[in-house]
Amino acid sequence: MTIHVRVNGVEKELEVDPEMPLLWALRDVLGLTGTKYGCGQALCGACTVHLDGQTVRACVTPVRRAEGKSVTTIEGLSPDGSHPLQKAWCDLGVPQCGFCQAGQIMSAAALLAKKPKPTDADIDQSLAGNLCRCGTYTRIRAAVKKVAGIAEEEP
Amino acid sequence: MTRHLQLISRRSFLEGLNLAVGGLTLGLFSAEALAAEPSGRTGKKPKTSSPAIEDGTPGLNPNAFVHVAPDGLVTIVCHRSEMGQGIRSSLPVLIADELGADMARVRILQADGNKAYGDQNTDGSSSVRGIYDDMRRAGATARTMLVAAAAKRWKVKPEDCEAKDHAVFHRDGKRTLGFGELAAEAAKLAVPEAKSVRLRPKAELQHVGRPLPLLDGPAYVNGSAVFGADVKLPGMLVAVIARPAVVGGKVARYDAAKALAVPGVKRVLELPAPQKPYVYQQWGGVAVLAENTWAALKGRAALDITWEDGENASYDSKQYREALAASVRAPGTAVRNVGDVDKALAGAARVVEAEYYTPHLPHVPMEPLVALARVDGDTCEVWAPTQNPQDAQEVAGGILKIPPEKVKVHVTFLGGGFGRKSKADFIAEVVWLAREAGAPVRVQWTREDDVRNDYYHSVSMQRLSAGLDAEGKVVAWRHRTAFPPIASTFAPANRPGSRDLQQGVTDLALAVPNVRAETCEANAHVRIGWLRSVYNIFHSFSVNSFMDELAHARGVDPRDMRLELLGPQRVVTLAELGVPKLENYGQSLDEHPVDTGRMRRVVERVTKLARWDERKQDGRALGLAAHRSFLSYVAVVASVVKDAAGRLRVDEAWVVVDAGTVINPDRVRSQMEGSVIFGMSIALHGEISMKGGAVEQSNFRDFKLVRINEAPRKIHVDIVESDGAPGGIGEPGVPPVAPAIANAVFALTGTRVRELPLARSFPV
After folding, report:
1. Partners of residue B674 in chain A, C-beta under 8 Å
2. pLDDT tens readout for residues A45-60
3. Rounded to an integer, what distance in angstroms lies between the CA atom of residue B275 and that of residue B167?
């Protein structure tokens, strides 16, 4: 079966098992390895991508669900890594091992698209599905707020 | 003894330069380059010294770590693995700083496994401590030669020249030559003895201890950083393996035909069952090799395997806990002895006793295990997120019966390590499979595989007893510890050794006249391994909790009790500790003594920062803990509150770390922040339990990690300014976190925490 999907702005035709999770279609078939496998059960968020602008966990999304839709991965978030979140992540030294950060940024980007001035609770709620074993959470919050133009309150 | 790193003189260029590095300025990995240019096929002659720089490449290459090209590009080799600790933004910066290089014209190259670099095991928080001066000498050697070349050309004394900003300057202020202009001439000079070169005084260093960027940041945030699973080899098969649920279990039968019927599945291979001791052997089981990961997963699900569980099938965590408790309730083997503890306990006005239980823990790095291998005749090439590429060479060489140096091991970024990726079991699997399949193979672990087939952090029971005199002063301290030791993975063993006990038992400074530590038996039924900060986790938990208990028993402030037990500022001798020796994490006690002054300072500073003395008026429940490990001193205060739903929350944490000299303060800070979250996961949620010999948990649904909504609002980190010898950073932040939280929980609820995780006893 052929799946027609627009990935990072480019039309793709995929000859794959329609039940194959979008994650493996992206990684194994299209070679887009910025989207990570972390749990396979929508529990860690490392595979977060945008499907028609909404965050989905690619590890549990059958590729058939992307038929006729538009997928954005970390590689397509900005042409040159210049998305404000990507810049803030670097400025604040958010990543440690870096493995979860593409998923974190994709979740944060979807949040800011919906709510440009999120509260702490909004940030926590939107990113609670994205695990970080290294423990970069406080910097993730700070980076999202920096992009949103929200001043961090000092202790 | 200080670890010694050999700096081998050579001039040749990095084999497979394109292979390990794509971008020029930062030397980031490039997946396509990896796939396109397998270095094992380039037909170049084998290297005999440093692997880093290819023969005939012009420029200065005085040792394994530095190359200066005629165009001025400086290449610095990072020989330790990057797993989030920021080593690529630290060690190379130190070398560049000694050299006098401009970081904008430095690229960082990730080393393959090779003994020419010395020890590459990225473990034990050892990538700066112990090799700090050797790394500086690598840069200083190149600088000395560039300066000598300039002096020769100008016919002046080298002492009148200075290297900085990527150039050599004469003191007259009129003459300057760039590093690139000098490289060829410098390369003709004799390489000075590394020990003889001048090291810059600290004031001369431009980067060390100053704010430094995270060099790999851009690659992490745009998806281009190459982790293990991001490497692709032509003709590669993806393997997933069904492993025995019980350690020592074997395959009885399975249905290969069903798996092979899945479209895309190419091979089904039964791996040999491992033999004791398990060390880094494969786990056995059945592998399904397919065109892609999805097909392999579907094929594995179809295998319909029947297992024979073997001798560990009776392992049950509930029963084991009772056995551990019985073990610590009887006298053990004394491993530390001062005065007469039995007599002092018998004569004490009051005896306080408590037992502390902590369960097995897994590592669960965000990147599950993965490795690739290609076997070609008597050569082998491996790509892996490994903490220890030289062990990977050994293991692969052992399987293929070829010398380890015939195995090329390329180190990718590690999506977290925490000790798991220093074990080479996943390398053993992929090398065996690649040979049997006759094709390049990527072995991909699922999260369930990772949770259920780990080298687990030891389950432990600690029993502490203290005798207080009539004034409440502690006159006796007895610590019994029982846990299956890591040594059991490598040889029969059921008690810790002295190297294990220095982690919070035998190295604990105590101003108490009668002290004894004892080890008690504990048999292993799973593979045991080291997890970030290792035995310090439960020793720090029990000791810091017990000190808090003693403070409350006596009715004094826990900080004051802690400082009293620590005693006055001093260097603690082996005689005072009551031990014949202290491994001291492999470094000398002269350079890294047990220093109560440093411990006092971090305790005093952290309590000041956290407004410890004002906590009652602030209405806060705070807990304090402090611990020396990996030659660094860390104190933590945690604040715990109940949320609207009655769940316990860590809402703020303060960390003060004294690690001696630090290279990159922001990476130190990030390690401390991460340690708080890591320690919170241990304190709140972390537990692997066994039933019928098998792990009960499977994925993040039932093995929980702290999420962002549980993270403290603020984590404050303060680094003690120091010119002292560097200590570790990656691990020392972890041990004080769980007890600081537990002590805060007591302050809030009045209920003492004597077992982890808190989720066992409290809503969290």
Report:
1. 96, 134-136
2. 999 999 999 999 999 9
3. 58
